## 1
Amino acid sequence: MGDSNQMPFRPPQLKIKPRMIIILFLVVLAAAMGVSSLYMVDQTEEAVILRLGQFNRIASPGLHYKMPFGIEQNFNVPTQVIQNMSFGFRTEKSGVETIYSRNDYPEESVMLTGDLNIVDVEWIIQYRIEDPVAWLFNVENREKTIRDISQSTLNRLVGDRKIFDVIGKERVNIEARGQEQLNDVLKSYNLGIRVTTIKLRNIVPPIGAVQDSFEDVNKAQQDMNRLINEGKEAYNREIPKARGEADRIIQEAYGYQAERVNQAKGDVARFNSVYDEYRKSKDITRSRLYIEMIEEVFKGDSDTDLIDKNLDNFLPLKNLQSGGTR
Amino acid sequence: MNKKLTTIILTLIVLAVILIMMGPFYILEEGQQSVVIRFGKIVDSQQEAGLKFKMPFVDNVIKYSDKILAWDGEAQRIPTKENLFIWVDTTARWKISDPAKFYASVTSYERAYGRLDEVIDSSVRTIISKNFLREAVRNSNQINNIDDTQQAEVEGVEGEETMQQELRDLANFSESKVTYEEIKKGRLKLSDEMFDAAKKITPEYGIELIDIIIRQIRYSDDLTESVYNRMIKDRNQIAQAYRSFGEGKKAEWLGKLENEQKSVLSGAYKTSEEIKGKADAEATRIYAESYSKDRDFFEFWRSIESYKKTLPKFSKTLTTDLDYFKYLNEKSPR
């Protein structure tokens, strides 16, 4: 094309022959035809072909031919790619260490729960284009439509549950229901996509004092367990000790019992033996026992006083003496 | 001669191309619809894709989208029936159903959005202010059906089923286990009502409304603050309940400790005294059985045995009166 444009600026002495113009025209025509009739479809894509604006066919990956000069148009649609959309946060740069944007998106993530509390929910959805024709020609603001419906679905599901259930055990249920309902609505628009995943990311109470108070409940639960364990610990420390002590007391009593009975048996055995002999010669034995007793009692003493029974005035003297020595 | 002919052919080709390009045809793509205007008057409208005809130079073709379009208004601050101010953010989908009417009544997208703003905003406002907040927030009554056993557990205390139960009761109590008021409509129903109100008006503009969806509901700022405070108070109260429960359980354990310690020790004392008593009785029986054979000898024997033990400790002053000394004064018995 460049050549023909420069024609008028050529020196006038060069003669323009009509034949040249025709040949040039045909060459340009052929080149334009070649360029405008070949197109490529990537492995991840499918191409929708319109002929004179009307849907004609779908082309698979590879190099293809179409009618030139805009008679046929191709639109490549990435039908094999799973697409991501995040709500309440943005990924700034994904990689080994994904960087998330510092900004919050409260207009997406703040929701009211069924018990009229406030919760902050972040989530992602993933979808794939299943019907490229529907995707291209049925809905105008596609991304925005997906975002809107995803938000409204999540809002509705969270609005039907208590804050604790949202944070806790209803999480999985919300994901499953969300996907189902989102797909239903998008299908009613004939958007040509299927949502394959909804994943709730962070579900937290509003940041600040509210979140602190939620954390304090967890701490309180820890405290509770600690206190109970302290009580248990004291119990476990003291009670086995007390049981041992009780055992000791009882064992001691048994010891006492054995001792007492054996002593009695011993005493009695001795008595019985002596008694048997005593019966044979009562007087002698009696005297012997008596004398033996006195002997034993007095043998160790050295300062025993012995007085005649007629010395009546001895006693006060004795008293004085012992009083003086003291 | 030859030169003249080629010039003519060339001119004809160029003319033909120009005619076709300017000329009686235009392409309507999938997802487009068109209105054909001739001297300011609508003469034709097309909704099917393909090659379409028009009068060259005279007709003006205006193409509109035939796809579903999105409408997104500003969030509105609306009081509910109980006079709580909330932000309601709605979004809608619509479509140009009658391009001729659309051209005649609004012509451009901007003006169409303006009309939709008016129609939808007013229907949203009407419906929200006629209903309680809970109707807009919740969609069903299933909130009361979700079994809400609390997740707090007493750790490391196996087999304490009664305690877990107690804790659960406590938690449910402190969660102020209320059955939430039944809602009659729910969010989807409200959206439908807004939709019903708005969709009656839009056909005037050649617009078909497809749906209205509540995207988000938020408390107004001052309301948010008070809700935060309520949430905090609520949590504090629950935290306190857990701590008190722990304190109570600890005291219970300590009491149990005291109780068991005392009862174990006193039980042991009792048993030991019983054993000792039995031992004493047994000993007494053994002594009595034997000693009762000869009372006189027993007394003598026992006294002698006793003297042996006790007398050595006394400081003694003896008189010769003692039987023991009877031989001191006499050589022969008396």
## 2
Amino acid sequence: MSTPTPPPPLVVGPLTRTDFVRYQGASGDMNPLHHDEVFARSAGYDAPLAIGMLNAGLLATYATDWLGPENIRRFRIRFKEQVWPGDTVTCTGTVVKEYEQDGDNYVDVELTCTRQTGGVAVQVWATFIQEAQ
Amino acid sequence: MANAEATGRTGTPYEVAIERGKILEFAAATHSANPAYWQDPNPVIPPTFLTVQMFWAEWAEQLGTGGDPNPWHHVELDQQRGMHAEQEYIFHGPPPRAGTKLTAQSRIGEIYDKQGRKGGTMTFAVMITEFRDETGRLVAEARLTGVETGRVPEETS
């Protein structure tokens, strides 16, 4: 079993309000903070903020291209910093640990979605089962 | 303010049908071109796809299963100061594929306070959802952690 090498970073952006709405429609979370300018301003924001689960979904895209959608066993997301229209985000990953459990091989990875400012928007800890090679 | 008495509150079970069109819509929205979604007639779900449980909980009444599927509203977090802090998905085997009919059931876990780094009390609440297939096997679990901050949050999204 060789240690899987992370693919090149996934860069997405500049993110638009349309990206937010498309994700909201796909996911079913219609919180107006992410598309309604008036609502967002009344809540104290300058603009609708990106929906955190969109950035988490981009990390999932990066991770499944790397380790395979069928192999995911755990995906734990922490939302850290807000993302705004016009931001460009970069998804990267590193291997944390490889181990065997009940005869199967697993890999734990840490995934990071970073804004163009260097601020970490979303962090994920994921576990994938590894296919025999 | 959050309602601490919501802990342990369990929603009624509701249907979550896994469908190819919805999977492709989700893959497109998350910028995935993976052939496991696009080239398979019965694609596997993306890792965060079960977030669509929100649709199905909302539709339970029209679908005739009715009841009170989403116990989250009993937590009563303020919508303008309420934020998503963490979300976790656990799969007990390969994730489900299009064509699978799951039954979801949600319950409220712990509700607790923490001091924020910039002052003020933050209230956290957890909701656990279990997804079972037609045979009753536990296929996946979702764990949502929400937070209500003392003012407009700057550190969570």
## 3
Amino acid sequence: MTLQIVLLGCLLPSVCEALLSDKKNGTWNLIGKIKAQATFRTIDTPDNNPIPIEAGDLINQRTLLLIEFRHDLGQILAQPEIDYYLQLRAFYDSVWDIGPDVFSDDDTRRQYLFDNRDQINDLKWDVDLFLAFIDITYGPLFTRSGRQIISWGEMSTKRILDGTNPLDTTASLAVDLLERMVPLAMVRTTLTFDNVGPFSSVGVDGYYVPGSIENKNGEELIDGSAVYPPIGRNTVEELQNPFSLSSLMQIVDQVPDDIDSDRYGVKLNMMLGFLELNLAYYRAYSDVPVPFLDIDAFQPIYLTWPHIGRILGTLITDPSNFWNAFLGDQKLRVVLTYDTVDVYGGSFNYYVAPIDTVLRGEMALYKDVPKIKPGSIADLVTELGGKVYLPGGNLTLGDLLSGVDLGGLADMTLPFSSGTIATFDVLKYGIGIDKNIVTPLNRKKEFMLIFEYVGSKIFAYEENSIIYPWQGPNGETLYEPEYTHDFIFIARTDYFKGQLVPQFTTFYEVVPRALVLIPAVTVFKGPWQFECTYMHTFSKSYEQEGFLASRNELTIGFAYNF
Amino acid sequence: MKSTAKLLSFLVFMMMPVHSVHADVLPGDLINESNVQKIEGLVPDFVLEWVKKGDLTMKIGELAYEPADFLPPEFKVKSNVGRYKVVENNVLKDSKTGELSPNPRTVKGWPFPVIDANDPTAPLQFLHNFNYKEYARFPLTTRDFWLVINRKGLEDKYNIRIQKTLFPEGYEYEQGEVSVFDAPFQVANIANMSCNFMDPVRTGIRYVYAPQLRRVKRLSYRLAGSEETLGTDFAPDDCWAGGPKTAFDEGSYKMLREQVALVPYLAGSPGGAVINENGEIDTGFAKAGNRAYVGYETDGWEGAPWHITNVIWAKRPVYVFEGRSENKNYRYGPFECWWEKGTFTHVYKRDTDINGTLWKGVYYVHRVMESGDGGFRDVDFIGPIVVDMKSDRATTIVANCMEGLYYTRNYSKVNLKHFTRSGFVTFTK
């Protein structure tokens, strides 16, 4: 990579300016950036991580190209004003070809039961029109049609009212901030009024994402990638136990949910003196998929005595093939279920002039959010056992095992649930202040300080009723708490005329007392940009952000802007 | 005895150092390090230093016209004499109506067409004149270049679109501004919107669109006016030869002197303005000519690459005053401001650091504009050219370089909704 950078440095212009532009009228320009970045894990993963990653391992090496074309067509006739915007994105993550063996070597990956080279080859790179929209402004009416991003709300890090566009979580720090929100194809309209009653301006903002066109709710994650949380390690050895998680996962066929519902939202914006108020409603898809066993898709099994004989024989002689003997070619279909969620909320910001401080806040009620209930072998036996008919056809396996003590198996929590999807109403709220201050640490630039508190409450909560989609460091099941409380602090300044930009971000989560530190520095020199970000988490438990304790990582990157 | 005295006088005369001859220049002089003494006292110390170092060669010229004759008609009349005064918090007061910080829609011409240098508020009168003259051109749209230039040449070239307006009667705020960076990528799509009152003590609103957050964020209304912007050498308060602009009440000023100085004018005859078919006045070089050339792009220029090269320096009367901010966090120490008499345009600004040491030298190249049919005339400026003497780098803001559209109070050309929080989404990406 160093050689590539040196060569690039010799070939590329040293002036930071638009690649091409309309020098006469300034109505269009072509700009972009190319960025090469590498992320290293700085901590060994726990034993229950799907793949073993050691401190120092490269986990992402992403090369990104963003090219942006803006064209202002001006006014067509007297009205309206029309312009369009295109942003092309291309990326390639070479860790899947040149990284450590757990990523690049298929034989090594198969030891951990990941045999997905086709998926890797499909997802490790992409070229797409990331953003593409046309704007039409006609007096107070503004419409934007195409792939775009809408970001409502006030918090800097945690999302409360901001839930229209999904997040790209496929590569942790390796995903550039500009591509972190996944654009959706939609039509957006804003209607602005001046001087309405006591308000200096009132705006109505609405959008519509047609489900028939837009089927995305995030980027697809490569199985066995570095961002996989600790959910247990599947190994060839564990397959000898037919009731181990490894064995159970082999009979599961996880399929993505259909994303075909319309999404839409409306927001009322009001300015009252220094106070900005927003009231919003929108329908979006839930963030976290619920792995849900599709009972209906399970084809009934009619056991015969020879079949039972083969199953028992395999159990004794070759336990790793037990499920094949039992189910044949059939797999359990587990749908990674997303459901539509209605969100009602509001936000405000207020400039407190006497202390030169911005105060911000927001709140949102998420209705019927699907959550992961702990699944169990007993549920499985009850629901699937009813479709497994014993010889004679009158009695099912479920009937037979009803009331039978399953021993230690009964306590085993499955990574998918069945029956009905549990939904909960969740209230999220946050408040923040922004303050610029002068410190002795920088005599030429202010420090921008951001303090935020973000909390949440799950209604109709029952103890140990909702699990996280990952495990504790020792394989223990982790349960979502009723309340969460996060404190966030961000400090940022710059030195040497903006050429050195340090930033420090920290989160403190009251439960489970997790402290996340993210120091970062960016250096600009002409068109060149160097970035270095480190993330370190202190936590003894893996609830909430605590699981990041197994994710300490360092990212360095070079970019060339034009 | 008489002859002895003559001899002594002659000897004394011969012993006088050559450079003690009164500094003066003549049209046609080319001032460089060999004859820099000629401009002593006619320019601020930083300009002398530039010339001594070979960074700047000055072509002395004579204007074939009186710039003040090219002011718009309303700025030639002196009907406002005695009508306005500067009161507490540096606020302008209309003595006739008692109104404080009168809306520019109601102020015709200079608030202070005649300035008495002995009036303690004289420096503030220059600054108010500057503001109200600027408002008179609103609504306007410009497409500018911000050029960051080091010794080796151009380092960064930012493209920025700016739209400014006054709000018609009935609106809460009095002035609005939207600016959007178009290039290069690292600053592209950063957009700012602010709405203000004329009264410096009244707080307005300020928002920024941050592309990396994909979010419009509320900002502190008061700009840190002495802090450099986006990696340039330019601080918002360098946009004029004055102190805090958005915290106008925090500036305190003292008149120093009236003198003759060399004032940079864009070479050539008045011109560089066209009135297009929509009645808009375009002063951008793309349409109207009168382009300013910068050192790095000028063949044969041997000075620093950041100076404007097609300039003549003409002797003109100026006032010099000193100012400072009362805000202890202001990054500039005392600053010196040079303003041309008659046109009330700024010429030089000398920024010091908080210890009073010279930090930046700033100058503004004057431009006298006239449309072909004479229907539009004005005296404007190009710049600022902000030279950071400590880091040996400069930022040259070539205002109205590409397009400078003045809508001549035709508000139908401006979408006022863009200056609202809701309408600002137009500029987000």
